[in-house]
Amino acid sequence: MAVRPPVCDFGAKMPDFTLPDPDGKPVRLADILGPRGTLVMFICNHCPYVQAVIDRIQRDAAELQSLGIGVVAISANDVQDYPQDAPEQMKAEALRHGFSFPYLYDESQQVARAYGAECTPDFFGYNADGELQYRGRLDASGRSPAAPDARRDLFEAMVQIAETGQGPRDQVPSMGCSIKWRA
């Protein structure tokens, strides 16, 4: 079932967290903050929406990191029902796609709830002051291959945030699979 999260709550403060990477090493939000902004992404391994854009996520993340944007991905799915989203599978996924950012596991789902994450992928773009400025889509492609000239909504928004501290006022929500909450 496709889910569309709400539009950006401009200025909302970035929730703090400490989460393990797939090897169990704790990573704090402070470890990944960028001097010009931070992108927090909720993704998972099994979602067809994520799989359709995962290489573009990595491409944009690497470019954003070179511009001083911190980037992190978090998986919060219930691994009892979705074992393909378990930490050992997350590690393999990160290696397969050459992630340049940490991919963390939110077993308690408390971080996903604190952010208000609803789907995978769900993108939260913050300025250098930790204020939410973007809650939109990666691009217009959805689950389809992107056209070569597809507008890079997330990338362009994060560049604008890095340069001005403000996100675009016109944003299209992301769309994806619902986060798989534990009962």
Automatic annotation (TrEMBL):
Pfam families: AhpC-TSA (PF00578). GO terms for molecular function: antioxidant activity; oxidoreductase activity. It comes from the Bacteria. PANTHER family: OS07G0260300 PROTEIN, THIOREDOXIN-DEPENDENT PEROXIREDOXIN. This is Peroxiredoxin. Residues 8-160 form the Thioredoxin domain. PROSITE patterns: THIOREDOXIN_2.
